[in-house]
Amino acid sequence: MRITDIREIAVPLKSDLRNAVFDFSEMTTSVVAVITDVVREGRPVAGFAFNSTGRYACGAQMRDRFIPRILKAKPESLVNAAGDNLDPEKILACMMQREKPGGHSERSVPIGAIEVAVWDAVAKIAGKPLHRVLAERYNGGKLLDRVQCYVGGGWYQPGKGLQELRDEIREKLDQGYTTMKIKVGGASIAEDVKRVEAALQVVGAGTNLAVDANAGFDRERALAYAKALAPFRLRWFEEPTDPLDFGLLSEVAAIYDAPIGTGENLFSTQDVHNLVRFGGLRAGRDILQIDVPQSYGIVQFSRTLDMLKQNGWARTALFPHGGNQMTLHIVGGFGLGGCEAYPGVFGIFAGFADDAKVENGYLKLPQRPGIGFEAQNHLYAVMRELVPG
Ligand code: MG
Q1: Ligand 1 mean position to 265 CA, how many Å?
Q2: pTM of the model as a whole
Q3: Of 95, 46, 38, whose CA–CA distance to 387 is shortest?
Q4: Least CB-packed of 50, 177, 326, 356 within 10 Å?
């Protein structure tokens, strides 16, 4: 068996949202199809993925380096020992040829998107949902049928006041979510504290509310927010500092007693290692939010988990960034803490199967083979276009 082609397309997000640091008006995402010569139900099996949200489309690197490396490799060098399926570890190694160490995100995002699409094909060829393939390989075969899911929102929008924020949160709770994350840092501290108090009126307890500063604070503001937010004992305080400023993060962690969340903008095992060694974070208290398709994909993520285990971190401390079907399978397959959701935002890339329902803060894992993008009509329409015939 072999990969016959890999195709990609850049799709605009068409979002008018803004967080504390930037707006999404120009944001694009790469959609990838890895096409194989394996035929199921009269059609070639194709694996799909996209490069999550928040990093721009990366088609140039895919077209210039990673796709040609895979297509040039001997087909037998990219399959498993039995020769009956693709081997994602070998395909990752193939893409990493002649790549210089360090400086990760320029390649970790395109490589991760292709790698996750390979896994979709692997699971489809095996006839199993991806979370089951991952559980068998990476979690001792422990199959889950549902995972915890929290909802992100609370963006800044023109004309949106405290009542609109409360209404937004109420709507999410009515949809079945129990924990909500809202943005902070796009207003003054006094205004943001009022927003947190308003949100708490709806969600009930601090453990049901997280806040996300999107790495937008300088030292003075990061420490001031840490002081102002600490008494609320929130579920977590996300990205209070620049993702690579481990010195400042450890200063914040020293005065902020409740959980801190970070890691969605770190793209390598080495960066996450530095984070847990030098960022002042505490295993058992804080949470990590690696975005798997943006960080070289699933094989490398399993190595990051091994490293974290050696440093005392449990898998349940991981709440990967990216409220999408790929992350849902990864959370279920590896047995992580939970996943996030962004219903109705980020265009066709938001959310899960069209008929997915959240119940009491939990989401059921999909059962169709692969990742199951086929159950996301608008997104799958784009993916299907990439496959000839
Ligand atoms: Mg975030």
Answers
A1: 9
A2: 0.97
A3: 46
A4: 356
